[in-house]
Amino acid sequence: MRKALMAFVLVGLVAGGCAKSAEPATRTVLVDNKATTFVGSFLAYYPNALTVHAGDTVDFKEMWSGEAHTVTMGKLVEAGLASVRGANPNAAPPPAFAKLPSMFPNGPGDVNRNAADPCFLASGDPSSYKGACPDVTQPAFDGKQAYYNSGFLKKGSTFAVKLSNDIAPGTYHYYCNLHGPMMSGSFTVVGKDTKTPTQAQVNAAAAKQFKPVADKLSAAADGARAGHAFISGNIAGYGDPSVENAGINEFFPPSIKAKVGEKVTWTMIGFHTITFGAPASEDPFSFGPDGVHLDQQALAPAGGPGAQAGTTTGNKISIKTADAGGYNGTGVKSSGATDSFPPDLAAYAVTFTKPGTYPFRCLLHPGMGGVVTVT
Ligand SMILES: [Cu+2]
User: Fold this and answer.
1) What is the structure's pLDDT at 18?
2) Residue 77's domain spans which residues?
3) What distance in Å separates the CA atoms of residue 365 and residue 39, rounded to the nearest whole number?
4) What is the whole-number distance in angstroms between the Cα of residue 178 and the centre of ligand 1?
5) Residue 328 sits in a domain of what CATH number?
């Protein structure tokens, strides 16, 4: 009797186990992230390593911080990332990597369609297409495709990657074609006999990866709020020198009081705009039937010179200030999209010529705003 029961339980367990592992699973990976104590951007995938089975689906969920991202993989990416892994991080991209297109142009202009749009190439090279790649239905990822690209991940979107049933066991890497190899991740396909982590375990891995980054930036944000930033005065954006792939998208302080005729100056840290008078709809991205476009107007300076970081060399902080002149609330005044990272920082100065309340925001990062009250 006892033996029979044991046998029954065993059979039940084995049958249950089989049914479970044969069932394709879906696992969610976050693209970018959200912190609870500050507004930030996180140029990473959470978690950046995953274990799955052939036939599973990986859902890449865009958390939207205003930063554009892709999930890009395939043989060309695999070769490119492998070559970068061995190289000096400050060296020019190795040839295998240099031919992978980036979503944004190197300078002003619209997106590169072959990188900003979905692109699935069994063979060949996305760079051979001047415009968009051939418009095809997204195939399952079999690990043999030359190029497999989500394109620009819209706010609120999820890029679902169905793994083919015949994908070979092994590790497959992907990256963001805008932020480069710094923003990359992998998934490892294991045999059906090997258990894979549950979504709860995947979430725990994501949280563990996120915590040290969020903690450091949270402390930096607290410091900036208390006026203990490494730069004095008003600051647009902030960060922590030991965190390369994430930043704080806030103005410190968010609320500024000034007298008529007073010049207010912000030092910029990160990639931001300081913009007054832009319509609420102003956004660096617009969407047409052919996909995403860059809005040059949102990115360009307005109402005076734009901010621009200097190009001194060395480790000493240097700040180059653009004087954008007077503002009385009429029209748009904007620094334009400005890259400003230590040690070469850009600053932007506006002189308020009329009493009033002047809201401003960064056009690149939702939720990054402030107000100048002039009396
Ligand atoms: Cu990215």
Assistant:
1) 41
2) 23-212
3) 9
4) 5
5) 2.60.40.420
